[in-house]
Amino acid sequence: MTQNPHHNGHSLHQPILLGNARRGYRGVVQAIDPHRGTSSLQPVELESRLIELGFVEGAKVEVLHEGIIGRDPIAVRVDNITIAVRRREAMAIVLM
Amino acid sequence: MSSVESHPFNLALVGTPNSGKTSLFNALTGSRQKVANYPGVTVERKTGLFTTPGGRVVSLVDLPGTYSLRGRSPDEEITRDVVLGRKSGEPVPDLVLCVADSTNLRLTFRLMLELKATGRPLMLVLNMYDIAMRRGVTVDVEKLSAQLGVPVVTSIAVRKGGTAELLKRTDEFAAQATSPAASDHWRPLSTSELRALQREADRIIADCVSLPARPHTLTAQVDRVVLHPVAGLVILVLLLFLMFQAVFSWAQPVMELISGAFEALGAFVQANMPEGLLQSFLQNGVISGVGSVLVFLPQIIIIFLFILLLEDLGYMARAAFLMDRIMGGAGLHGRAFIPLLSSFACAIPGIMATRVIDNKRDRLTTILIAPLMTCSARIPVYTLIISAFVPAKEVFGWINLQGLVMFGLYTAGIVSALTVSALVKFFMWRDYEPAPFMLELPDYKLPRLKSVGIGIYIRATMFLQRAGTTIFSMMVLIWFLASFPRPPAGATEPAIDFSLASIIGHAIEPVLAPLGFNWQIGVALIPGMAAREVAVAALGTVYAIEGGKEAAEQIGQVLASKWSLATALSLLAWFVFAPQCASTLAVIKRETGSWGWMGVTFIYMFALAYIASLITYNVAVAFGAG
Is the ipTM of this complex over 0.90? Predict the structure, then answer.
């Protein structure tokens, strides 16, 4: 289980996004930035839904599973529940 | 407003999806529940009556699961409006029960805080408390109640007596309740308010709940296999395959028992009644007609058994996860998997279940293709034709050839549904962004027999009511058409040749002849518009009146002797596609709110059916099966 599986070799300046994280990645939610990613939802709506599913600042996350096509969607442990989400929406979740 | 005594105490259940709300509802009301729709929308309205130990009559409503009161789908809007007491035609709840899964309190507590802000009378129910305790979760209930400012009770919905405290507190509450008024304290929360509520919820949890050091690992271990990209899909396919084999082999003995009973009843009527119209009506119209439909009850029960078990187990959300991108390739949303799987039982609940898809276009596509999934009403037709034309031998040592053909027909339905969906996306909605897929994957829970039993009971009752009303009246109509006018005295041909059915059948025969259908099939297809399974009974009645008692009992053999293999295959192809179900069309009209979409479904399915049958028949004839 590697701690740095960000696949396109991120630099220190680029934040780690849950949408790029690979299976086994563990981190803590730093911020929700609904303007990142390519979700079809309005930013406010995307942010509200993510919060309602437990993605709030400080929540511990771990990528548990990946889908078969394009490693998408992903199943994420968020504190003590598991949420399935597509990578394009998970891009709005900034990790630290 | 009437006095408190004259109307039942109105209780509403609110909670997040997977909070065990439905099992609590089942525990409180047992089988005394009513499933209907809210007027004007197709959101399921589940209500039930029960009497508390204190002798108070309570009317309980199970509201659709939601994470917040924002109401981003018709379901969630209903939940909000009923809770706030502003849904017209619905009583204002005297008490709102907020149901929480005790093993997973975070999301419910935030909802709970949002509910509290509305000022409605509230009680928090910590459900599945036994599982939580076993996992090492402990809750300081009194402290929690003090911090939340609402009464808190624990409950174990699935255990006898597990709701005693809830009932006692409800009685206490009701004794001093005043008539409730609608609330106007609610407005949508901003994202910063949502965050603040979640922080408050987390603070209360940290204060009053002690969580186990080790998280629940069984679900994680199972998911390692079940959600594995390859193994998970293999398991999903095996499950579906097992389901269809079960429908065929497990149901067989019971089905033989039922058809035997109806045959005996028919023979009894024939032996004990004077020959004539009434005898013919009872034997050929009523008994053989209703019997030929009732015989499929075991198969319908098995399909629903699988669906309900998988749902209660927590597997359905996993199936949606596994299928999301695969279905995405066909332009479908992962959440469409559950409605489409329900459509294997019946397209009507399937189409109604599409309301879990909040994007309108995704929902419409799913509605359009749901009738292509092989519903249980096709089973009678398929079974009859397969058993008459496909030998019951084993292939590869263990697979029943008849089951394999059935599996092939199901596959044809699925493949055509995915193709239609892909075409719809390509031609109509090429430029649209896919809607998000966000779903909680609940911990696995052992399904409870009582809950599954109640679910099956309610669905079986609905099927029987249909058999008793729609199907029965269609059978009477068919018998009438096949029996009148009576043949002239001294006629040597079978009586049916003089009947209205024969006239109608012959009139449409030219259209159906290219498909290899004879006029008897034409007669059966018309009432089959009411419900597919009626076609079987109609064939039974037509051939019975034509050929007498032996024909009715041996309908399969009669078909094998009267039809070519090409005709049989062509009819199978027809039933894969044809929109032979008036109730499905009615539901599509209601769900889409448009005659147009209903018309589109009707026409495209008819066109597909005609083309598929035409090709099947001609290919089969070319191969010498004519």
Answer: no
